[in-house]
Design a protein that fits this description.
single chain; alpha/beta; eight-stranded mixed beta sheet; 14 strands; about 40% helix; globular
Length: about 400
């Protein structure tokens, strides 16, 4: 599947995606103004998207809540208060309170385009539009298909009905993985949307350092396996702990990011009990990425938090971050991540049962790391555009949505 930010407007790869009827724009915009509704101003992925928009010369105002105190906001920001992870009842009330706050802000009315990240913020965007009596086009940015949308009961049906009603009024859908189109949008909402693939690549103008050279030697010592980003999968956590117990001084496990306390209830005590497991905490992306990935031999790219659904369809940040720095991913077979790795021939795949195949793979790599070196060389000879968003891509997609005049 294409990984160059390609736009999908028709039946490609089984996707029945149609462009809604257009309302022509009356003027050409040289510097579009964006109202960006994100779910959490402190989230690393939100910050990366804001950086990419700004780096492409777009004028952006963020309208966002936060789940922890955000640091070093580099964009014009309207704070919508604090929310909590998993507090869905609170967030339903927050949609209406936040929409009123947004609608009352004069900067919202001045925006040429609204980008709403995830379904709750999409609902807030349309409620704010209604209150402010605006016809501003909206882009739905879907970086995960939430478990509420994949449930097979009446609640899941109602959530998909809500998504369908909002989706029909959107100018575009931005997805970070073709798996979301194939397994969700085209299954439930075929013919109602136009989509753009926006992979989780690094922002072009950010300071994330130079790629290592092919001749850069591996640092001596134990095998170093990293798990980086949103640490939200109990099965992955336990798999890595098991490898630490099995291989002892032959391996180091390095964890960087924010643990999801609802998913991994016992975290620090498990790490403290093992000398070869280190939790480094939160990090700034992309500023800290070179330091994080430089020591690693491989990065874990599996996820089972929503097994059979979102976890199998997503493409994680680790593919692009690790790939840029020449760190091969290890991932389960049969996932969108595995399809990406196969297409680029840049990683190592394992089949179920993982509690058998993962230690077998690691034992082989510790003894003879040649397959890892081959994967590393393939990563470092890939085009940089595989891992880094081309300069101007965000602006191109924004202007495309505006020129089509798809406001509802």
């Amino acid at each position: 599947m294409a990984d160059d930010g390609a736009t999908f407007n028709g039946p490609i790869g089984g996707w029945q995606v149609q462009t809604p009827s257009a309302r022509p724009m009356t003027e050409s915009l040289t510097a579009p103004r964006i109202a960006y509704l994100g779910h959490d101003a402190s989230d690393a992925a939100v910050r990366r998207r804001m950086r990419a928009l700004l780096d492409d010369g777009l004028s952006v105002t963020g309208f966002m809540p936060h789940r922890r105190a955000p640091k070093d906001l580099f964009w014009d920001h309207v704070d919508l208060g604090e929310t909590r992870d998993g507090a869905f009842a609170q967030r339903i009330k927050f949609i209406f309170a936040g929409a009123k706050r947004i609608a009352d802000d004069p900067g919202f009315a001045e925006a040429d385009l609204i980008i709403a990240r995830n379904l709750d913020m999409l609902g807030m965007a349309f409620e704010a539009k209604r209150r402010a009596r605006l016809a501003t086009p909206v882009i739905y940015e879907c970086l995960d298909v939430h478990r509420m949308l994949t449930r097979r009961d009446a609640f899941g049906t109602s959530m998909r009905t809500l998504e369908r009603a909002l989706l029909k009024r959107c100018a575009r859908v931005w997805v970070s993985s073709p798996g979301f189109l194939e397994h969700h949008f085209d299954v439930y909402h075929s013919g109602l949307f136009a989509a753009d693939l926006m992979e989780n690549r690094l922002p072009a103008a950010s300071e994330f350092g130079q790629r290592p050279g092919l001749a850069t030697p591996r640092k001596p010592g134990p095998f170093r396996l990293g798990w980086i980003g949103n640490l939200r999968c109990q099965r992955s956590f336990q798999l890595l702990l098991d490898q630490a117990d099995r291989f002892g001084e032959q391996i180091e496990i390095h964890l960087h990011g924010v643990p999801a306390r609802r998913e991994i209830e016992v975290f620090e005590p498990e790490i403290d009990a093992r000398a070869n497991v280190t939790f480094h905490g939160r990090y700034q992306a992309p500023d800290d990425l070179a330091e994080i990935y430089a020591p690693l031999d491989a990065v874990w790219a599996g996820d089972f938090m929503e097994a059979g659904a979102n976890s199998e369809w997503l493409l994680p940040n680790r593919l692009y971050e690790g790939g840029y720095f020449g760190v091969p991913p290890i991932a389960p077979s049969g996932t969108q991540t595995a399809a990406w790795i196969n297409a680029h021939k840049t990683g190592l795949l394992i089949d179920e049962p993982l509690d058998t195949t993962l230690p077998s793979l690691l034992a082989d790599l510790i003894k003879a790391p040649a397959p890892l070196e081959t994967a590393r060389e393939r990563l470092l000879t890939q085009s940089t555009d595989t891992f880094v968003e081309p300069r101007g891509e965000m602006a191109r997609l924004v202007r495309s949505a505006l020129q089509q005049g798809l406001a509802r």
